């Protein structure tokens, strides 16, 4: 029996269940400390596997489209933060201060990897460029996201300095990623063969972080300080942000004369934000008691972008084949 279309995907249901569990049965004391340690190990494993999944051939095949990558990075790390700041008079009254901080954090995050590539593939876009751009965005975010938060808000992490926060993120995320990629010749075939099972490591790591973060927030009185009107306002904020960026990326692609394949890559890589990167980085950049509220915008945006991009990918994928002469200005792909 097929799943009804109005139901969220399994991972979204698991996220909602995790938030509900943390709200009713928050962890504290020694249990919270043990789960925090387990969470750090799980996140390191998550990024280790991300590195092992990344094919060097895919990087080389997509690396030549430098103009496309620059535009994608500009959308991810310039357009989003600028919108978050200049729309403050409109966005801020709709949500609480912590939720607005979460919106700014959402705007500063790198692009997601797996879903951006999956939607680009479904829409018949430039897959090698999507792999290269999304992966590079994820790595750049380790350095750029803390700096953007510093610029837009003057926020400092729990380490007391931006450089300290960056080093913690490098240590927890980048080093395992690099180690996994260097070991790809040894473990790559195993990782590729068991992708379906290993996705539970991805999802399980995020669920662990969400549970510990929301437990701390609930103990600090999250739900008492968060009115229903602010949650509804957050839905509006996420929809408006995504709509503006989707419109901007499609218009920019046409103004630059990009091929339809490159337009698709720009739309899906330039408009998405990474829950997998955002959740662990939030633990470093913000106080434990505020992480729960700060994660709400990215969790909600994550679901909205998945539903919206699924519809867009089907629409793009149903188009007729573009005649070969129209692709003559594309750079040849390596390999």
From TrEMBL:
Keywords: Membrane, Transmembrane, Transmembrane helix. The chain crosses the membrane at residues 39-56, 68-87, 99-120, 127-145, 165-183, 204-223, 229-249, 281-301. Signal peptide: none annotated. The keyword ATP-binding does not apply. It comes from the Bacteria. It holds the Pfam family SBF_like. This is Bile acid:sodium symporter. It comes from Pokkaliibacter plantistimulans.
């Amino acid at each position: 029996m097929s799943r009804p279309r109005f139901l969220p995907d399994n991972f979204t249901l698991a996220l909602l269940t995790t938030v509900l569990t943390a709200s009713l049965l928050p962890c504290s004391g020694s249990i919270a400390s043990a789960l925090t340690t387990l969470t750090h190990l799980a996140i390191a494993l998550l990024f280790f596997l991300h590195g092992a999944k990344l094919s060097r051939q895919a990087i080389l095949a997509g690396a030549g489209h430098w103009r496309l990558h620059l535009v994608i990075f500009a959308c991810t790390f310039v357009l989003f933060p600028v919108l978050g700041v200049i729309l403050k008079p409109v966005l801020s009254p709709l949500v609480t201060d912590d939720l607005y901080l979460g919106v700014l954090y959402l705007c500063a995050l790198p692009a997601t990897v797996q879903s951006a590539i999956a939607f680009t593939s479904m829409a018949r876009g430039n897959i090698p460029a999507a792999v290269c751009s999304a992966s590079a965005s994820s790595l750049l975010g380790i350095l750029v996201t803390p700096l953007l938060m510093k610029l837009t808000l003057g926020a400092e992490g729990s380490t007391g300095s931006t450089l300290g926060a960056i080093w913690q993120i490098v240590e927890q995320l980048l080093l395992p990623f690099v180690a996994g990629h260097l070991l790809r010749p040894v473990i790559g075939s195993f990782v590729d063969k068991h992708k379906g099972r290993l996705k539970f490591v991805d999802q399980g790591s995020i669920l662990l972080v969400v549970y510990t973060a929301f437990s701390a927030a609930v103990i600090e009185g999250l739900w008492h300080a968060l009115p229903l009107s602010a949650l509804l306002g957050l839905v509006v904020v996420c929809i408006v942000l995504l709509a503006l960026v989707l419109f901007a990326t499609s218009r920019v692609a046409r103004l630059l004369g990009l091929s339809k394949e490159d337009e698709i890559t720009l739309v899906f890589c330039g408009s998405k934000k990474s829950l997998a990167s955002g959740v662990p980085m939030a633990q470093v950049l913000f106080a434990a008691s505020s992480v729960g509220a700060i994660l709400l915008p990215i969790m909600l945006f994550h679901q909205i972008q998945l539903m919206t991009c699924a519809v867009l990918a089907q629409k793009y994928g149903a188009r007729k084949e573009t005649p070969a002469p129209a692709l003559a200005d594309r750079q040849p792909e390596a390999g």
